[in-house]
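Page 37, top half.
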Amino acid sequence: MRKLDWYIAQHVLGAIMVVMLVVVGLDLLFSLVDELDSFNDRYGLLEALFYLGMTTPRRIYEFLPLSCLVGCLIGLGMLASHSELTVMRASGVSTGRIVGAVLKPVLVLVLAALVLGEYVVPKTEQIAQSRRALVQSGGEALQSRYGVWHREGDSFIHINAVQPDGVIFGVTRYKLNGERDLASASYAHRGEFVNNAWQLEDIRETRFLGDHTEVLERPNEVWKSGLTPTLLSVIVVEPVDLSITGLSEFSAYLSEQGLSSVDYQLAFWGKLLQPLAILALVLIGISFIFGPLRSVTVGQRLIVGILVGLTFKFAQDLMGPASSVYGFAPWLAVLAPILVCLALGGWMLQRAK
C-alpha cells in the first residue's frame, strides 16, 4: 500500500509543481513588462531582474493554494482518465485511502509554505522594495513615487527606504499643532537606530510661524519614536507579505496609536488559516474528480480549477471589507469561505461514495 500511496502522491505533486512553474513564470513575465515603464538611468534590466528574483518567494506563496487545487485536479484527473482510480477502488482501496494519499504531499507543501511565509517572504520583500526605492529615487524622498507613509501622534512621516539593518533614508516629517495646522516640516537624508532612538543626519527643517517661516539646518538629531526597525520593516511591506508574528505586533502598535488595524488583522488571519484554506480547496478538487469531473478532458478540469480558485479568492476579498462595514470579526471573514469549501467538498465526496 505504500507503493500505491507514493504512486498517487507522485502524480499529484508533479502536477502541482508544473502548475506552480507555469503560473509563477507567467506572473514574473508580466511583472517584468510592467517594470519596463520604471526604467531610467539608475534602474535598468539588471536591477529589475534582481527585484523580480527577490519577490519570487512571495509569488510562490501567493499562488500555492491555486496551484494545489489545479494540480490536484490534473494529477488525480489523469489517473481517473486512464481508469486507474476505477481499478484501485475495484481492488478494495477506499475513497478515504485515496484522499489520504493525495493530502500527504499537500501537507508537506503546506508546511513548506508556513516556513516560507514566516521567515523568507518578509525579508526578501523588504530587501526588494527598499532596493528598488533607493535605486529609482536616488535617495531623494521628496521626489520619489515610492516609500511609506505613517502617522504617529500629531506627526505624519514619509520614509523613502528602510533597510533590514536598521538604516532609513529620506525621512520627511510633518508636524501639526493643536489647531491641526502645519507647524513644521523637516527632511533628514539618513537615519540609524542606536540606543533605542533614531540618529538622523543632514536635517533641514522649516518652521511655520504665523506670518513667516524659519529654516534651520543641523548635522544630526536624536529622534525618539515608537517606530523601531522591526515595526518599520512591517510598514514597508504589504500586509499580505508579512510574517504572522509581525502582523500581530504591528496590529497591537496601531491600536496603541488609535489607528485602524483591520487590514493587518485580516492579513494575520488569512496567513494563519491558509493551511486550512489549501486543504479545503484540495478537498473540493478531489470531490470533483470522484464526481462531475471524472470523465472530462484536462482542459475542462483546468478551467474548473481556475474558476473555483478565483471564486474562493474573490469571496475572501469581499468578506474582508464587509467585516469592516458590518462589524463582524476579521477571523470570521477569512474562515467563512473555508468552511463553505470544506462543507461542499465533504458533501460531494459523501455522494460519490
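Page 37, bottom half:
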Amino acid sequence: MPKKRFCRLIGVLSLLLGWIPSASALGPEQVLVLANKNARASVGLAREYMRLRGIPARNLLELWITDKETCSREEYERKVVPRVREYLKKQDPLWNIRCLVTVFGLPLKIAPPSLSREERREVKSLREKQKALRESLKALAAEEKKEKARLQKEIARLGGRILTLTKTDYRSSFDSELTLIRVQDYPLKGWIPNPLFLGFRKRKLSIPRDRVLMVSRLDGPSEDVVRRIVRDGLEAEKRGLSGTAYFDARWPRPDKAHAKKTGMGYGFYDLSIHLAAERVRKTGRLKVVVNDRPELFQAGDCPDAALYCGWYSLARYVDAFDWRPGAVGFHIASSECATMRGKNSQVWCKRMLEDGVAATLGPVGEPYVQAFPLPEAFFGLLVEGRATLAECYMLSLPFLSWQMVLVGDPLYRPFGSQGGGRGAR
C-alpha cells in the first residue's frame, strides 16, 4: 500500500478516537419498520417488535415482494423503491425517519440487472473463447513464455468484458441499497462512500449526509431467533451487558511498518482489532481477551462472551463461544451473511445467531476487507453507550450500496444506562 495512503488511514483512526458527532440518539418514533406481506410471520413479528419498542403503529410499511433470499434488481425498483419513497414523502414530510428496519421474510440480496438476449449470447461466446484459450495454454511447453503471457492477457481481457456485461459489481445487499432510498440517482456499479462514516467527515462527497438512512435487520434462521434477538437486547439493556470481550487478531499488535507490509486491508484491519480491544479495556466495563496468534479461538476458549471480533475462517463457524444474552460480535470474512436459511450452512452470521448473539453483521457477497466496519470505531462507540446499535454501525461503515448487512435491533444500547445521547445525524 502506498505510504501516503497508509498515513491517511492512520489519520482516520486518530479522528475516530477524538471526534464523535453530537446529536440525539435514535428514538422509536424515528424508526420505520418494513415487513413482507408475502412471507409467513413477517408482519406479525414486525408488530410484536414495534409494540415492545414503543414504535408508533403508523411506522409500519407492508411490502409485497418475493420471500426468497434474493430478489431481482427490477423487482426491487418496482415493488420497494416507490412504496418506501411514497411513505416517506406523505407520512414523513419533516424527515423525522432516520432508520429503516427490515423484518424476517424480506430478501437479503439484490441480484445484478438482467441481461438482454444479445448480452447473454455475447457472454456465452466469450466464455467459450476463454475455455479454448485455457486449453491452448495448458498445451504450451514451459519455455514458451511469451505465448503464455499473451494467452493469459487475452483471457483476462475477455474476463473483463464478461464482468462488464454481467454487471456482477452491481449486486448489493437489500439493506445497503435501502440506505440510499432518499437519493434519486446514483451509480449502481461498485460502492458509494458513506457520508455518515467518521473517517469521511472532512471529505466533500456527492451525497448529502441528511439523505442517508440507517438500516438494520431483524432476521435469522427462524422466527424464534428473531424474537430472542429482541428479547435478549431488552433484557441486556435493563441490567447492562456483562462478560468478556474477545478479539481474535492474526498477528501481535502491528506497527505502521508491519501494517504497510501486509497491505491496506489485512494490516490496517488487524491493527483496528487491536485498537478496539484497547478501547474496550480502557472503559473497564468488560474483561478483554486478545488472541494474537494466526489460529482462531477454539471450542471452549470463550466463556461468557459479550463482545467478539475476529477473522479468518471462510464460511466455517468455529463454535468457541458461550454467548451472554445480548452479545454483539462480527467476523471478518467474505460472504458470511450470504444466507440465513441454508440448512447446512456454516456462515458466521447465521451460526452466531443460532448460537445466541443478539447482534452481528456481515457481507452477502465478496465485500473486500476495507468495506467492513472499522472494529475500533464500532466497538468503541458501542461501549461508550451513547449511540444505538444502528448508529455505531453507520458511523463505522465506509461504504453503501454494497454488500454489508447489520442484524439486530437498531435501538439496542447494551451500555446505554451509563451514557447520554450522541448519534449519527
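Margin note: The radius of gyration is 22 Å.
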